[in-house]
Design goal:
Layout (H helix, E strand, L loop, with lengths): L5 H24 L5 H28 L4 H25 L4 H28 L6
Helix pairs in contact: 1-2, 3-4
C-alpha cells in the first residue's frame, strides 16, 4: 500500500542524504569552509525542515497515531534542535570539538528517529501499535 506522503518523504530523504554528504565534505575540507557547499548545506537544511514539518504535521492531524510516534517526533525534533545549535556554534568557532561531538550524536539520533518515522508513515502502521 502506498502512502500519500511518499513523494514528500522521498524528497526529504534525498535532501537528508545530500546534507550528510555535504556535511562530511565540509568537515573533511576544513576551514575556511567552501562557501558554495556551506550555503547549499544550509539551504538544504531549511528545505528539509520545512518539508518534514508540513508532512509530519499533516500526518499527525489525519491519522490516529500511537504515543510511540509522538516519541519519535519529539526525539527527531530535539536532535534537530541540537544539530542547528551545534552547527551554528561550529560555524562561529565556538567550542569546536565539543560541538562536533554533539553534532555527530544528534545526527545519529536524528537519522534513526527519522528512518523509523518515515517507515511508519510509508507503511501506515502507526495506528496498529
Amino acid at each position: 500500500m502506498t502512502s500519500i506522503y511518499t513523494g514528500r518523504i522521498i524528497t526529504s530523504s534525498v535532501l537528508l542524504i545530500l546534507l550528510v554528504v555535504a556535511g562530511i565534505y565540509i568537515h573533511r575540507t576544513g576551514k575556511p569552509y567552501n562557501t558554495f557547499v556551506f550555503t547549499v548545506h544550509k539551504l538544504f537544511t531549511v528545505a528539509m525542515i520545512i518539508i518534514m514539518f508540513i508532512t509530519v504535521k499533516n500526518y499527525l492531524g489525519a491519522t490516529d497515531v500511537s504515543s510511540l510516534l509522538y516519541l519519535l517526533v519529539g526525539g527527531a525534533g530535539l536532535a534537530l534542535a541540537g544539530l542547528l545549535i551545534s552547527g551554528g556554534m561550529m560555524s562561529l568557532d565556538k567550542l569546536q570539538e565539543t560541538m562536533l561531538v554533539i553534532h555527530r550524536i544528534c545526527t545519529g539520533v536524528f537519522l534513526v528517529s527519522y528512518s523509523i518515522l518515515a517507515w511508519f508513515m510509508l507503511t501506515n502502521t502507526t495506528n496498529k501499535l
